[in-house]
Design a protein that fits this description.
Structural class: alpha/beta
Number of strands: 4
Distance between the termini: 28 Å
Helix content: 40-55%
Radius of gyration: 18 Å
Length: 199
């Protein structure tokens, strides 16, 4: 039996940094060994429609065949904000699921990051405030969404929040267990796919 492999697709740079840090946390916290995985950044939510299947067919499946392993699960993470307000049909997940399964991949799962990755990062407000060296944890933040609230928090520390790979140091400073505990219902399918056993 070929070893199984999990592919985790993310929509942007901040999500890539976050999910890699989350999986590092799982590696240290899980009593079971994680299945091998790859994190692939599609650089935009619309690319789930235009790029995902091409990447699977031309890149990941041929590599799996050459190296003697099977891609068992494809997981797609996406920020839900664009689906909530702007274009609910921007990506047709059911069609993508059918196409992925036609390629011989057993499982297709979606992780909806509500409403954006900044909302998840803000689950560890204490950790962000420590990172920013803010003496007090604010009781409320200004902004309609996680991104705006993050801008407000950084402004209080006289700093500028920048999305993308520049979040690396911040995300390293977060308590991933606190975030995971708040989001474990959404993360459960990914944890199951990776074979994570939390003590």
């Amino acid at each position: 039996m070929n070893p199984s492999h999990v592919l985790i697709f993310v929509e942007g740079d901040t999500d890539e940094v976050f999910f890699k840090a989350l999986i590092d946390y799982y590696t240290s916290a899980s009593s079971g060994k994680l299945l091998p995985y790859d994190v692939c950044n599609l650089k935009g939510v619309t690319r789930y429609s235009s790029k995902l299947l091409a990447k699977l067919k031309n890149e990941y499946l041929p590599t799996a065949l050459n190296d003697g392993y099977k891609i068992k699960t494809v997981c797609c993470s996406y920020d839900t904000d664009v689906f909530e307000v702007k274009q609910p049909q921007i990506v047709k997940w059911n069609d993508i699921c059918k196409s992925v399964k036609r390629l011989g991949i057993d499982d297709f799962i979606c992780i909806g990051v509500k409403s954006s990755i900044e909302d998840w990062i803000l689950d560890d407000l204490q950790g962000i405030c420590s990172f920013l060296r803010l003496k007090q944890v604010p009781s409320s933040l200004k902004g309609m969404n996680g991104y705006q609230r993050m801008l407000d928090l950084y402004k209080r520390a006289r700093r500028t929040y920048k999305k993308g790979y520049e979040t690396n140091e911040l995300i390293k400073a977060l308590d991933m267990s606190a975030i995971r505990n708040k989001r474990k219902d959404v993360l459960a399918p990914l944890e199951e796919a990776l074979g994570i056993v939390m003590l």
